[in-house]
Amino acid sequence: MTRRPIVFRRVLLAVLGLLVLGVAGLFAIAWRPAIAPIDPPAPGAFAADRIARGEVLAGAGYCATCHTVPGGVRYAGGYAMRTAFGTIHSTNITPDPQTGIGRWSEAAFVRAMRSGVARDGSHLFPAFPFDHFTRITDQDLGDLYAYLMSREPSAAAPKPNTVPFPLNVRALQAGWKLLFLRQGPFTPDRTRDEAWNRGAYLAEGVSHCGACHTPRNAVGAERRDAAYAGALIDGWQAPALTDANPAPLAWTEEALYAYLRSGATAEHGSAVGSMAEVVHGLSKLPDADIRALAVYFADVGRAAARSGDERTVLAGALAASGEGTRQETDRGAGLYLAACAACHYNRAPAPLLARPELALNSALVGDDPTNLIRVVLHGVGTDDGIPGAMMPPFAHLGDAEIASLAAYLRRTRTGRAPWPDLEAKVAEVRRLDTGT
Ligand code: HEC
Ligand code: HEC
Ligand code: HEC
């Protein structure tokens, strides 16, 4: 009888000991030293060519997209990212000494980009895509630093995040990194040519294409076994860029080049939603870099193996384009004729750039109707996709009307199974848009 409490006490002690060890271990893994603050570099401290190269890289990394609130000062942060784990706000990366990175040395900046650790030693959340920025070379990181540190400082205090306890414990990010972060600059594949490697460097590193096009696991890390397999991001569907891409015509090197350079191709469609921001960001990259991205993704998508039946696909799409241009009894057909046909109908021999051919569009052919619904609700602004071209929003149409329109287009222009529960899906997309 008297032994039991002793056993119990021993077990308790062992458990406590393990807990202390665990906490100490986590602390040891998670602890990073602060890097000493510097006096903000004087304006003119950086060579003009470094700043110019940094500006191009900042564009290609969409730093401004995430670090600026709509209508706010560029790079002053505060942009809200809604994640599955709560809202995370981007920080102020202007060189303001108090609220920005004005007192960050280049070493502190490089550490943040390579391993997601702030100057004070705290861990940053992977909503900041350091898992990609870690691939950037020292030289390019130095140029980015030069560019940011020579911006106009802007005082803007960080906004509080809404990540719940215990996920908001920054030290826990060390565990995440241990499991998912492969740190270090890009290593070229010697079996590939220079253009492929340049494309891979930009894609995996600064331009982080996988951050949107690769699905994530339960704790928000990109799934390595499903690179570029397509994912839902910010309420848009980023299609697969592998050979599982739904577009009826393969994304050849030429098509990818035209799309990434100009924002649209007649054989595929326009860059809309968050992809429009990407095309804006890439716009300062030289043609050779866009070509390199096209070379890389033509390979990722196995375009060479997919091409061959282009003439047949095109002829089929153009034949379907006539559907709905005559008066029909179908409700969706009537809507299409009234609201869409005037701008989207194409005639043989080829679709026109300014009249996106819906039968060739991933929005219509993919498994998920989200992008089609969003485009119909919001239209497309003149700055997105084809420069100067726009599509008006149709948010005044009811959920049932948009659903029947989508079902009709899917049925007449693709060989795919009907989308299920369309009306509920339209309501859901509308709800997500208004944030209610
Ligand atoms: C997808 C959105 C996104 C993009 C793109 C992005 N950032 Fe960030 N960044 C964030 C978020 C969110 C944080 C804050 C993370 C946190 O609080 O843990 C952050 C934090 C940082 C920090 C740490 C600053 C601090 O005060 O702790 C630096 C430095 C930084 N970003 C630089 C950049 C640069 C340079 C680029 C472009 C090459 C860039 N970011 C692109 C979202 C982004
Ligand atoms: C006034 C002309 C006009 C009307 C009317 C119109 N569209 Fe569009 N639509 C366009 C243009 C132009 C674009 C490409 C915009 C760009 O790239 O800037 C576009 C783009 C699209 C896209 C996106 C294609 C992509 O590549 O992602 C879809 C989907 C679409 N339209 C469907 C519709 C539907 C459905 C209707 C009817 C409800 C409709 N459109 C009505 C002109 C129109
Ligand atoms: C911020 C998120 C985001 C990033 C980063 C991103 N994309 Fe996208 N991408 C999207 C979304 C959303 C779509 C679908 C909207 C559309 O069709 O315009 C898309 C569409 C595409 C398409 C058209 C696919 C199709 O079948 O219609 C291509 C090609 C593409 N992206 C390539 C890239 C490349 C290359 C990069 C990196 C340089 C990249 N994306 C980075 C979100 C992103």
Automatic annotation (TrEMBL):
<keyword id="KW-0732">Signal</keyword>
<feature type="binding site" description="covalent">
    <location>
        <position position="340"/>
    </location>
    <ligand>
        <name>heme c 3</name>
    </ligand>
</feature>
<feature type="binding site" description="axial binding residue">
    <location>
        <position position="67"/>
    </location>
    <ligand>
        <name>heme c 1</name>
    </ligand>
</feature>
<dbReference type="GO" id="GO:0005506">
    <property type="term" value="F:iron ion binding"/>
</dbReference>
<feature type="binding site" description="covalent">
    <location>
        <position position="63"/>
    </location>
    <ligand>
        <name>heme c 1</name>
    </ligand>
</feature>
<protein>
    <submittedName>
        <fullName>Gluconate 2-dehydrogenase</fullName>
    </submittedName>
</protein>
<feature type="domain" description="Cytochrome c">
    <location>
        <begin position="49"/>
        <end position="152"/>
    </location>
</feature>
<dbReference type="InterPro" id="IPR009056">
    <property type="entry name" value="Cyt_c-like_dom"/>
</dbReference>
<keyword id="KW-1003">Cell membrane</keyword>
<feature type="binding site" description="axial binding residue">
    <location>
        <position position="213"/>
    </location>
    <ligand>
        <name>heme c 2</name>
    </ligand>
</feature>
<dbReference type="GO" id="GO:0005886">
    <property type="term" value="C:plasma membrane"/>
</dbReference>
<keyword id="KW-0349">Heme</keyword>
<feature type="domain" description="Cytochrome c">
    <location>
        <begin position="327"/>
        <end position="413"/>
    </location>
</feature>
<feature type="binding site" description="covalent">
    <location>
        <position position="343"/>
    </location>
    <ligand>
        <name>heme c 3</name>
    </ligand>
</feature>
<keyword id="KW-0677">Repeat</keyword>
<feature type="binding site" description="covalent">
    <location>
        <position position="212"/>
    </location>
    <ligand>
        <name>heme c 2</name>
    </ligand>
</feature>
<dbReference type="GO" id="GO:0016614">
    <property type="term" value="F:oxidoreductase activity, acting on CH-OH group of donors"/>
</dbReference>
<feature type="binding site" description="covalent">
    <location>
        <position position="66"/>
    </location>
    <ligand>
        <name>heme c 1</name>
    </ligand>
</feature>
<dbReference type="GO" id="GO:0020037">
    <property type="term" value="F:heme binding"/>
</dbReference>
<keyword id="KW-0479">Metal-binding</keyword>
<dbReference type="Pfam" id="PF00034">
    <property type="entry name" value="Cytochrom_C"/>
</dbReference>
<dbReference type="InterPro" id="IPR051459">
    <property type="entry name" value="Cytochrome_c-type_DH"/>
</dbReference>
<dbReference type="GO" id="GO:0009055">
    <property type="term" value="F:electron transfer activity"/>
</dbReference>
<feature type="binding site" description="covalent">
    <location>
        <position position="209"/>
    </location>
    <ligand>
        <name>heme c 2</name>
    </ligand>
</feature>
<feature type="binding site" description="axial binding residue">
    <location>
        <position position="344"/>
    </location>
    <ligand>
        <name>heme c 3</name>
    </ligand>
</feature>
<dbReference type="InterPro" id="IPR014353">
    <property type="entry name" value="Membr-bd_ADH_cyt_c"/>
</dbReference>
<feature type="domain" description="Cytochrome c">
    <location>
        <begin position="194"/>
        <end position="301"/>
    </location>
</feature>
<dbReference type="InterPro" id="IPR036909">
    <property type="entry name" value="Cyt_c-like_dom_sf"/>
</dbReference>
<keyword id="KW-0408">Iron</keyword>
<keyword id="KW-0472">Membrane</keyword>
